[in-house]
């Protein structure tokens, strides 16, 4: 789910002004230096996740309030691609249409629908000045009229019904104006109705189309299919960049491209300090190389130990990736017992911890989040940076020594406690300090302000995930999705080393 600071638990339950939705429905971002290393070995595709600069000041985003596959894969299901950071996520290059047009979209394991901005001149992003203020160019938009293979999806398509969350197969065609008789007989030739897909603070509105799509930048190769169904968004609100949906639903790319049958995909997110570096990218790996043989020690590229925790299944929200969180350790001395809601689901399928590359910061239930803040305050002796907390909306900021005004200086970090997550199956993940406390401003007088980049889920209403493991806390962690055995692996590692080994680094 795309969320910069607040968790988007449901794509359909976020209040959007009626007039805005009506406007969106009536209107039917930097060419990035993309380099890829397509490995044609045994069975692997490695992709380079792309991430444009966060801003010239280095400012990070502030808190703000199945049947498969459907598509027909056309080539080897093994690849590696380069992912790049934007200030609130990681981009994967998509080649869309015939001839191909390269679009960059967020890698989002919390969403199913893949959509791209449509119309080079007509695409309208409402209230996107925050992005336009950055010194970056657009990430690309798709022109269906320039693609000889593009077509609208029929209202009779199962994916049209899935998009509109309908249990009645006749609903989409009736909405378009078809007679009941034609709908019952399957003779309605009208296209799938327009959609408005909501995210925590944004909306994407458009139509469902079918076209050639490859998870790859340029130069051919990569994982792709000839009849992939995705959204063509003519207008959005707060959403200037498209989304590559890597969830578990019918509409997701893993479903349509047969990745679930292949069994594995993984990524290793570079930390934010690489965001302005065009010479290195985070790897997205699809295929056998996403995981090494457990019989050979369970390691993955980059060194260390890969530990697997079960992938929990929610009857209420089956399209998300869930794990069970049993405890959190602060500074190797303070162990916090987590609420039962984070360990598993209630009888309705609510609860669990969602692993979501589309949510920036990790979210925890309100009362438990307060316990975490209290434990950190007891262990940290640095002066609080209260003004920054008030200005930026973070809950815990400290003035930390930065000798010679070097923002990456290690001095002081050792006195900031580490945070470790303990998942089911005795899996422990000690997060890098920079994935918990991050410098939010340039150093001044040999001091830098670092803030805790976690968020509260609030008291909530008990629906949806109890917590979310966001992309910021997944930095310098190899995350492996083992879709054959329904488990997720975590391994703390230097993702820069992984990228270099994958050939995603320019000397």
From TrEMBL:
Keywords: Aspartyl protease, Glycoprotein, Hydrolase, Protease. Residues 57-76 are annotated as: Disordered. GO terms for cellular component: extracellular region. GO terms for molecular function: aspartic-type endopeptidase activity. Transmembrane segments: none annotated. Residues 90-491 form the Peptidase A1 domain. The keyword RNA-binding does not apply. GO terms for biological process: proteolysis. It comes from the Eukaryota. The keyword Protease applies. InterPro entries: Aspartic_peptidase_AS, Pepsin-like_plant, PEPTIDASE_A1, Peptidase_aspartic_dom_sf, Plant_Aspart_Prot_A1, TAXi_C, TAXi_N. Belongs to the peptidase A1 family. This is Peptidase A1 domain-containing protein. It comes from Trapa incisa. The lineage of its organism: Eukaryota, Viridiplantae, Streptophyta, Embryophyta, Tracheophyta.
